[in-house]
Amino acid sequence: MALIKCKNCGKEISDKATKCVHCGENFINNDNNNTNIKKDDIKNNIIFFLYFAIIIRIFFFIAAFIILLFGLLANHEIVFIASLAGCVGCVILGIIVSPFIKWMAYVLKNLYELNKKE
Predict the structure, then answer these.
(1) Does residue 32 sit in the same domain as residue 44?
(2) 7, 62, 67, 73 - which has most CB atoms within 10 Å?
(3) Three-state DSSP class for 8?
(4) Containing structural domain, residue 22
(5) Where is 99: in which H helix or E strand?
(6) Contact present, 7 and 22 (Cβ < 8 Å)
(7) What is the pLDDT of residues 39-75, one digit of tens each?
């Protein structure tokens, strides 16, 4: 067990500690790099990922609409069929990608809850 300095108050604490006994600063100890993870940063990242998931989904639906509109305006059957396939692809991509982004937010939320308990 080694002693390290708290990044908040500068006093020596155990490298195994998850909270500074002097100032109360919470952090997660990483074996390779001692990094403070602030609760507000985790909250902001959760909100970012949830909004990002919504924005990505909206982007894919708008892209699908534009592709479909392009296909409708073109007076060629093959272009319309290709644009319809592209439209469906964009919608499916939006539906598939969005939950993974939300999953990242929930991982951060769980990390926040674990950090909060300590």
Answers:
(1) no
(2) 67
(3) coil
(4) 1-36
(5) helix 77-117
(6) no
(7) 667 777 778 878 888 888 888 888 888 888 888 888 7
> Helix %, strand %, coil % for the chain, to 5?
65, 10, 25
Backbone angles phi, psi at 20, to 5 degrees: -70, 130
pTM recorded for the entire structure: 0.51
Distance CA 15, CA 84 (A): 58
What phi and psi, each to the nearest 5 degrees, are found at residue 50?
-65, -45
Q: How many domains does the chain have?
A: 2
Q: How many CA atoms lie less than 13 Å away from 65 in the CB half-sphere?
A: 6
Q: Could you tell me the CA-to-CA distances from 24 to 6, 8, 11, 59, 74 in Å, in that order?
A: 10, 9, 11, 43, 65
Do 42 and 29 share a domain, yes or no? Answer: no
Local confidence band at 32 (pLDDT 50, 70, 90 cut-offs) = very low
Both 42 and 96 in a single domain? yes
| pLDDT at residue 30 is higher than 70 | no
Let me know whether 28 and 74 are in one domain.
no
